[in-house]
């Protein structure tokens, strides 16, 4: 370190040496506006195209600076997770820390290089600003903005342990193995509690609440929150179409929070007996004396059953098959949804007093007229249990089967001759389900998989979930797109040989309606001892009987119901796949809606009497 | 089933014998009326669940009937027949593989649609064949026009078929 | 009244009067009051009266998430805010088991030392002003402004940087930044002879400052003095050397000391420290380009971050003395307790009272500034 000669008695004239500064340029700053640094934390900018109104900025602000303001001109889109809220900043409170910018999930917020604003007392409200892309005065552009290494949101999802193809291709063991406690808490901590998932869910599950409960390591509270809207968490936690995750604000730039798997974790973490206790917490202890018959023990029927039993009514469910669940039991293979998991959900419902009568077909064992007499209300929730057929030439061969029926046989554990080779017609999840189920049976019995799945759709419009297609290909299934079925070829001795297909040139016409066009010069033959059709499903409405069918009103082949799910007959409601669809969570939402309508109707009658 | 509908051999021969446009159109109109009557008769025989389908088919045949009748009464038909064929409708080939079902006593929606598709397909083929075998002129142009109408009708039915049959489930 | 019944009442001496020195007074660093009892211009008693800057930060921090507190902590010491940010981050990092990347640690050292330089320039100016030398004050503020420009470029803010978060820093250094730091340091070094001429060898100042506000080593240790004030009594104690944090153990620097323990010694210690800080920053500038890596380690979603239960005590040497944060977590998403040891808590209270007593009125302000007592740290 340099020493200065301070100990010596410096000349008293030393300070005068600095008079030279009078001749130099002063350091005074000019009054003109001075552009701030490139990284400056000035007034806010917000790109309204990117902003989704999730309110995360409001949550991280330490000064309660931000108010979310509703903008009527912006269109709300709950399905895609966009709200018509935009943040407004109170510059009397803001400290310009920039945490809002660093945590913004979409990256729409930034701070500008503007820092000067003055006004008279009359204009004092000008300090409360709704920032847009141009900013406070629009003079300078971006300053502090989000960078990849400073992002406070965790964009990567924690993967869930699962079985690899060699471990799963010859058995029906569940593929997804669930989260550990640590993994679940970590994944749940990614949530910013914006609530887009709640808005997008068809049955408006309290997802932010149950995610927060999991993060707080309180899975019982999570179960409580789940059961407020969804009595099928074991099912939905595995196979739901997760509209919540599509709307998740973290998913805008990263991977959405694993809302579906967290639901499953909550159910894994709490003992079934305790789940029953929690589900029973809101049960009314007053019995109304009203009786309701529900036809079909699927998600729609049983959700309505649970709601109604909790309101104190007596509920009888008539199920034609030997176990409850409907499509979730007989249509979804066990490697996606084990029967034991579904049984736990059904157990909770029956433990509250819902009586399910198995192997009782309407029309055969009990008819609608009897139900109308003996019950105060009847709900039809029979789903889409019959498979459609292409009825192409040769499709009347006994080895041409319907996917829905074959899936039911496999789920029931029925023994049948596993074909060495098979062709599946169709490109939806049902087609993938039957293809992958047959692949497992083939692998177990013969050691090789020979299955071809042909879909009319091209890759871009494939109906099945992406993950189903990927896993099907991993399991050895050949998935062909844009092939249209022409005829089922048969050997002279009666054996089924396979399927002939033509190439599909285009799928949609000018009005975007489905109108496939074939190129019959591109013909292929696909070998198959069995052909399975997975092209569509319909309800078995013959159970209603011809008189009732005439009395009812119909809407293009399905029962006509009003907004509440009621038919034109005052005692008959319909819910679920048979009237609406298209998946389990919509069936649950339907069940709630219909139960509320039935309960309201029964209460009205009570007052009148 | 009357033997005089479009696809049937005797119907073909009747059309082939005509020379005047007005007479051809009168026969075509009658075919539409026969179809309309057929569907109308079918309405009470099907379940109420799918009755809408048969009613819609009957209504469409009625529209066709009205269209051809109006055309037949048009005094300038000879001059305008060439302009009737706008863009030739492409045959998509979808219904080539549908074979004519026996409707039976209680047809379901798929059977009804298959039957209707087959009718339109056969009509389209017959009109096209007539056009190919006729000398160039107003008659040939009229046959082309009729083939085009049937093709359009068939395309609409193909869409309805898809929406009805390839629906439900995921 | 009869003479034998007359009792004399002992009135206080009429030549003593109490003067309110502050809270609004240019001779006070910040908002702070010193009630001095004077006999003529001799101070016979002094009573420090703080609290005007109590903003309740420690209580506020208990109600805010761990990440939100980074915006509160720089405000605890206004002239030298970086050690406050740093100590908080270090304490939380210790609790949370976070490992700060090496690049961030070097950037943090640079930020700390630049802040020290800026604070010392401010203090010279203040000290000079208390002896009537306003030119030095203007110089100090003007030169400090160049350092504020550097901070603006690095952190986006001039005074309150809000740049450190638990886990690292928030942004990387801009392109060409190190060159600009170098040129600013060069400029400052070229200015030091001017400062010496005007201030440090100015006989008026030397005469005013020597012998004023003297404290012995013994007294300094008893009164809890730390930092340059302690080093001016001859003790070579510095947290950067005794309990190294960040990467100070890899950097060459000397600890500046003086023997006399008066205002003059304290000022000189600061002047020498300024040169040492320049030396440290130059070493950082040399090393930094070759150190790559991230500028922070990943932390969980700040809205859902539970720091494990425990307590941590982090110490930093700031321009005022030893800053320390004592942070207690009970495993939640907010601190249970944050205690801030502001070094001026001792300097502005018992040290100041003791040193001005027996001195003259005109030295009161000088003694306070020579101690670099910062009231925001006292009141928090």
Tell me what the structure shows:
The complex is a heterotrimer of chains A (609), B (170) and C (380). Chain A is an alpha/beta fold and 609 residues long. Chain A has four domains: 44-150, 2-Layer Sandwich (Alpha-Beta Plaits); 165-279, Fumarate Reductase Iron-sulfur Protein, Chain B, domain 2 (Orthogonal Bundle); 285-384 and 539-608, FAD/NAD(P)-binding domain, CATH 3.50.50.60; 386-537, 3-Layer(bba) Sandwich (FAD/NAD(P)-binding domain). In chain A, the strands form seven sheets. In chain A, strands 8-7-6-9-22 form a five-stranded parallel sheet, with helices on both faces. Chain A has a five-stranded parallel sheet with strand order 11-18-12-13-14. In chain A, strands 2-3-5 form a three-stranded antiparallel sheet, with no helix packed on it. In chain A, strand 13 (451-454), helix 18 (466-474) and strand 14 form a beta-alpha-beta unit. In chain A, helix 7 crosses helix 11 (272-279), helix 11 crosses helix 14 and helix 16 crosses helix 17 (429-446). Chain B has one domain: Ferritin (Up-down Bundle), CATH 1.20.1260. In chain B, 64% of the residues lie in helices and 0% in strands. In chain B, helix 2 packs antiparallel against helix 3 (51-72). Chain B is elongated and about 50 Å long. The N and C termini of chain B lie far apart (39 Å). The model of chain B has no long low-confidence stretch (mean pLDDT 76). Chain C is an alpha+beta fold and 380 residues long. Chain C has a single domain, classed as Cytochrome-c3 Hydrogenase, chain B (Orthogonal Bundle), CATH 1.10.645. Chain C contains 13 helices and eight strands. Chain C has a three-stranded antiparallel sheet. A three-stranded antiparallel sheet of chain C has the order 6-7-8. A two-stranded antiparallel sheet of chain C has the order 4-5. In chain C, 53% of the residues are buried. Chains A and C meet through helix 1 and helix 2 of A and helix 4, helix 5, helix 6 and helix 10 of C.
